Amino acid sequence: MFKKSLLLVTTLASLSGAAWADTERWFEVEVYLFERQGSQLEETLTLPGNRHSRQPIDMISPLFATDITGASLGLEGCNAQQWLETPAECDKQLQQAQVTHPSQIPTTIGAPEPKYATLGAGTVLLADSQSQFGAMINTLKREAGHKSLLHMTWQQSMLPRHQAKPVRLYAGEDYSDRFNEDGYAVNAAPQNETSVIPEFNFDLNFDEKQVTPIWALEGTLNIYLNHYLYVETALTLHREGSKAQPQVAGENEMTQTPYLHNIYMTQNKRVRSDEIHYFDHPNMGMILQIRKMEQPEEFHSPQSQPDETTQG
Fold first, then answer.
1. How far is Cα 25 from Cα 206, in angstroms, rounded to an integer?
2. Is 165 helix (H, G, I), strand (E, B) or coil?
3. What would the pLDDT profile of 148-174 be if each residue is shown by its tens digit?
4. Is residue 95 classed exposed, middle or buried when 0-12, 13-18 and 19+ CB atoms within 10 A define those classes?
5. What are the structural domain ranges in the chain?
6. What keywords were assigned to this record (predicted)?
7. Which of 97-111, 141-155, 203-217, 251-265 shows the lowest mean pLDDT across its residues?
8. Helix ranges restricted to H, 74-198
9. Which residue from 132, 145, 151 is spatially nearest to 276, judged by alpha carbons?
10. What is the Cα–Cα distance from 87 to 58, expressed in whole angstroms?
């Protein structure tokens, strides 16, 4: 009798686990980030310790990054879907290639046409026409000092914190041509003054270090499910300014030198689905909504959709 009861409990547990795996919960996420221009600088001198270490999902790079070595050699790079499904492999290819980025990333990021999540696929970037913040953004733009940074919408499966992958966000101007990663201005001396027009070196060593873009806004957004929905931000806003430095080493007289300040937004907040949430910061702000959506298994391909005159 005990063996039968144990077998029944084991069977029910396995069925329960299978049912949980099949009820994957998908949500639609819309985010809008902006800068408060003219506000007093709130700079953190040390990098926050709770930055995400897990490989992030990147939906922006496939739209704008160009592999110039791959193009010159006739190689095929990862498409947008491959970036979502196998980000580690695509990132490895990216590190081995010479990649060029535009000097400016637009505020609105979206797929060229409406998209929907499908079973077995990863996070999917939606078109701008599928977003819902349009009227609210237009109202905010009328406020003094308001500068739009990033607006995008996507669909993703929500996982527990130990499984969730953050989404990489970046936008705005690339400061790497004028500033180093430490914030100080790039020295003009190392530049090749004999050549006005930059030339591509076809004998370039692939291991040569490339200049990493320094975007006006960059970081990650991690959303996970632990009975409730939680949102973790690890974002950096770069603001051009100045910093006092000794005019001559060892002397007390100071002078203002160009400097790129780091402004961090690092928060962890419990949220409710379908509600619009505001993440506040003295120098920036984020508006986010996580919406319930029709689950991927409920979508039908155009071939299988019934005629519009047919009653469902």
1. 42
2. coil
3. 999 999 999 999 999 999 999 999 999
4. exposed
5. 25-65+101-182+214-294
6. Signal
7. 203-217
8. 80-85, 87-96, 134-140
9. 132
10. 8
